[in-house]
Specification:
Length: 158
């Protein structure tokens, strides 16, 4: 299985929709109070804006001509103030591997690619958010060396 990683392009939109839906549906199932059940969670205009934004980077994993994974990232800069130090981070906003290709190292290959990309940008860290209910994702991120930085908690009134 020869997996290649490349930058996403405008022609990838339709091929990426199933992967975007897969991630979105996971969020909807876990938190229907927060996420809208939507068969098209990433509109084409939004996707195109991401591709044209020099601070956002979308990489796809391919086997032949088939897209089997995607990782969406964004560069962010934290301005120093009296409370925090200035730093540059690369945020992973989304990672998805086609269900038919999971447990084959594709997610690791995508994240390793992004880790190397982050180093080339000289970011201070690579960060992401993950649902507490997504145990398999948490275990995956731990397996590639990531650690918990913080935890966001809530008290719901509904």
């Amino acid at each position: 299985m020869d997996v290649s990683i490349r930058n996403a392009d405008m022609n990838d939109y339709e091929l990426l929709l199933p992967l975007f839906r897969q991630v979105h549906n996971l969020h909807v199932r876990a938190r229907p109070d927060l996420y809208i059940d939507n068969p098209n969670p990433v509109e084409q205009e939004f996707f195109e804006r991401q591709l044209n934004d020099g601070k956002q980077h979308i990489f796809v994993a391919t086997i032949g001509k088939d897209i089997v994974g995607v990782i969406v990232t964004k560069e962010e800069e934290i301005t120093e103030n009296s409370f925090v130090r200035a730093r540059k981070i690369l945020v992973i906003n989304s990672l998805s591997v086609a269900e038919t290709h999971r447990k084959k190292g594709i997610g690791k290959k995508l994240t390793k690619y992004v880790f190397n990309f982050g180093k080339s940008l000289t970011v201070d860290s690579i960060e992401l958010g993950v649902s507490e209910k997504n145990i398999s994702a948490i275990e995956f991120y731990k397996s590639i060396g990531m650690t918990t930085k913080s935890r966001r908690m809530e008290l719901k009134f509904t």
